[in-house]
Amino acid sequence: MTAGHASTPKLAVRAATKAYSTASGDFLALDRCSLDVKANEIVSIVGPSGCGKTTLLWSMSGLHKLTGGEILLDGKPVAGARPEIGIVFQEANLLPWRNLAANINFPFEIKGEKPDKMWIDHLLQRVGLEGFNAKFPRELSGGMQQRAAIVRALSLKPSVLLMDEPFGALDSFTREEMNRLVEEIWLDTPTTIVFITHSIEEAIFLSDRVVVMSARPGRVAKEYDVPFPRPRSLEIMATREVFDLQNAIKMDIIGGRASSQPAVVKTAAPVN
Amino acid sequence: MSDAIPEFSKAKSAEGGDVSLTNLSAFSGSSGMRSGMEVLAIALVAVVIIGGIELALRSFQVPEYIMPRPSAIAMALFTEFPLIAPHLGYTLVELLGGFAIGASIGLVLAAVITQFPFAEKIIAPYILLLVTTPMLALVPLLILRFGFGYEPRIIAVALAAGPMVMINAATGFRRVDSAKIALARSYGASTLQIFWKIRAPMALPMILVGLMIGAIFGLLTAVGAEMVGGGFGLGNRLTTYSSMIQMPQFFAVVLILSILGILIYVLFFLIGKKWASWEA
């Protein structure tokens, strides 16, 4: 891709470690996780629940401190919120007392900046939300709410977009529609995207690379390149290669969880 | 900076669940609006009940000092109103003055205290004590200390309304939605910005509930305090009329008080509809 320096990744996770002290003792959510994300690359993180993928994402955003290791954005450590990083949350996370326009205006209000009307209108039109400015979140469907959340995240033109299981609550048709929308937007305006999901299919559809994490302690178990051409049509998604990759990832996740079961023969070797 | 991972899946909207002013009372339908048929039915029931009472009192020739007829009460309200009006004014001054003082203190304390969970834990039992103690009990003492003027009643109203506002507002401010706070923080919001743009609007529905309950408790306390001592106010009218066995006038004052209560309810209901309908 067109990274400024081939050697400096856009986002680098270096031996990220995060321990929580709970009533029942210390708990290691992340254990020396390392991961490089190149500029304008889409990387998905999948793994069993409780593997620390959300913790990893929040650490990347700079909102949570690590207990060890570091996160580098363009080679500089991330500490605290960074304007270059946009976040799309689980379940849209719109403010219910604000209408759509006011919700999208929210980041600018916090920053005390004038919103870029042209860009926002372009985004709204891009996701098919023009004319809904006066609607409140409860008047919008789940998919529309998440579209609005994407517009809000992109309104500040971030160079990195962190997406935390954004479509997990949507039905599968809406989810596929949203996936295609993310791909389209990305093809339009290349952005570095880190995408957390439970859905292997979603991960493969969207990503240049899929990172599989294992649980307790949270670690990067495996990485798979996803070399299929874009835009990824239904035909591509129905090929044998996609199916094999999907199974290989599934095997990694389930194999990691039910370790008592004998490992089944792996059908696809990790590319990376 | 708190450092817990926001649990989106568990607490969907907020701790403490959904609150709504519109479903606070059985008086309002689920949709908030009543159809013409329903209004007609309500009016019809009122006519039947009032007419029935009137008829029963007339046919059994119940003496006026036991229970005056609705028509007599209506007449008394009409003829005596010029005499009652100044007392209504006194009560309103006490209510508004005491409520303004109590509610402001309660709101500020709730906002401040919920920022410090530890302090809140220590203070909580005392707040509960303030809420559960009928402030009316302090009125004789307040009169002894401040005389028979406005002061003891305004203080009593403030003491009754303040804790009610505070406890409800605190519940509102405690409804922390970590995802929404994280959102604000991701744009670099300050603590003050998070308070005004996230916590305060999230707390608003509960604050309105607190203000309404506080106002109604304030009315109760104002009237009660007037009954204890002093020569003015609607409470004073109640004791005066009952001691003179002027029952139609007595009930006219009761009617004025219930109208006041309903007005308080309607006022906050409308405010809630305008500013907190997003949670309905």
From TrEMBL, chain A:
Name this polypeptide is given = ABC transporter ATP-binding protein
Q: Which PANTHER family match?
A: ALIPHATIC SULFONATES IMPORT ATP-BINDING PROTEIN SSUB (PTHR42788:SF13), TAURINE IMPORT ATP-BINDING PROTEIN-RELATED (PTHR42788)
GO MF terms listed in the record are: ATP binding; ATP hydrolysis activity
Is-annotated flag, keyword Transport?
yes
Organism domain of life: Bacteria
SUPFAM superfamilies tied to this protein = P-loop containing nucleoside triphosphate hydrolases (SSF52540)
**Organism this protein belongs to:** Manganibacter manganicus
What Pfam family is a match for this entry? ABC_tran
UniProtKB/TrEMBL annotation, chain B:
Cellular-component GO terms for this entry:
plasma membrane
Residue ranges annotated as transmembrane are 39-60, 95-114, 126-148, 154-173, 203-229, 249-271
Q: Which keywords fit this entry according to its UniProt record?
A: Cell membrane, Membrane, Transmembrane, Transmembrane helix, Transport
Residue ranges of every copy of the ABC transmembrane type-1 domain listed in the record: 88-272
According to Swiss-Prot or TrEMBL, what is its membrane topology?
Multi-pass membrane protein
Has keyword Transport?
Answer: yes
GO BP, sorted A to Z? transmembrane transport
> What name does UniProt use for this protein?
ABC transporter permease
